[in-house]
Amino acid sequence: MINTKIRDDKLQTLVSRSAVPIIDLAHCGKSLVNRVGQQLHKAFTEKGIAFLVNHGISEEKIKNVWDQFDNFLDLPAEVQDRYRRKDGGNSGYVSPRVERFDKKTTELRHAFNICQLDDRNIPKEPLPDFADDITTLANDLKAMSTYILKAMEAALEIPAAYFVDKHSQMLTGDDVNMSTLRMLYYPAIVDDEPGQSEGAIRCGAHVDYGTFTLLAQDSEGGLEVQLPGSEKWERVGHLPGAILINGGELLSIWTRKRYHALPHRVVIPEQDHVRTRGRHSIAFFCHPNNSTMIAPNDLSEDAEQTDDKVYSAYELIQQKFNDTYGGRSK
């Protein structure tokens, strides 16, 4: 145990090295959208990642959602099965060992995807407060995403509402927009259960699919990234109260890779006193409307470059889902 504590004390993170940009959203009205846009532009082009602070979403709202997901996981299996994600859709519960980003490594996590704020997709009957807590947080994250889209419009010097209009159907259903609020719980790893974590990971290495991701996580750790130009995995660390933002692959394609889609993963912590605790996080994946055509020329100053293939957002994201779920449609 003494050695474990020593390793923990010496564990360097990007936070401890002040290697992640911090963007302050305090009083982020229209007058500050240009400043936020420039800071996001610098973060996405240089690091692919940033922390958003003073964003106005309380820790209580986030913790309420973590608690509600814990309550869901305490329900009988037959009740959970009513809300299980079905092939052909993205909404619903996903149990451990189903998703495999590299198609082979076992991934140990529970997830619940919310793509539409309605009674059909949210377990309201067994958990009366679930819908209200989820809806409140989802609307806050959607509003934050809209502000970020406006800031990126300013930074990229593209017409006002270009991004906002193309993301206008967030959380109205994955048949029109694949944006998703995802609750995540990574179970504790108990070493006296043989084979529980052998050859496994909490979340395999991948880049996110869409425009960007907002991530709220607890202090348990395990998130690692590869910064641009490096193949080294580095632990991010925890900044209390901050929401992490990282660019997605679709945004990288849209900007001809000026904005980085950052590879990341969640490993099982090596410290015994951390790995034996569960880990919570909430991710909001901001995606364009499915019909949006991803045309890099629209964001390029060089109008003569027309050799980029144009895809719909749905085509690009669907292929990624198929890879994650072993060829099955998501």
UniProtKB/TrEMBL annotation:
<dbReference type="InterPro" id="IPR005123">
    <property type="entry name" value="Oxoglu/Fe-dep_dioxygenase_dom"/>
</dbReference>
<comment type="similarity">
    <text>Belongs to the iron/ascorbate-dependent oxidoreductase family.</text>
</comment>
<dbReference type="Pfam" id="PF03171">
    <property type="entry name" value="2OG-FeII_Oxy"/>
</dbReference>
<keyword id="KW-0479">Metal-binding</keyword>
<keyword id="KW-0560">Oxidoreductase</keyword>
<dbReference type="InterPro" id="IPR027443">
    <property type="entry name" value="IPNS-like_sf"/>
</dbReference>
<dbReference type="Pfam" id="PF14226">
    <property type="entry name" value="DIOX_N"/>
</dbReference>
<keyword id="KW-0408">Iron</keyword>
<dbReference type="GO" id="GO:0016491">
    <property type="term" value="F:oxidoreductase activity"/>
</dbReference>
<dbReference type="GO" id="GO:0046872">
    <property type="term" value="F:metal ion binding"/>
</dbReference>
<protein>
    <recommendedName>
        <fullName>Fe2OG dioxygenase domain-containing protein</fullName>
    </recommendedName>
</protein>
<dbReference type="InterPro" id="IPR044861">
    <property type="entry name" value="IPNS-like_FE2OG_OXY"/>
</dbReference>
<dbReference type="InterPro" id="IPR026992">
    <property type="entry name" value="DIOX_N"/>
</dbReference>
<feature type="domain" description="Fe2OG dioxygenase">
    <location>
        <begin position="176"/>
        <end position="288"/>
    </location>
</feature>
<dbReference type="InterPro" id="IPR050231">
    <property type="entry name" value="Iron_ascorbate_oxido_reductase"/>
</dbReference>
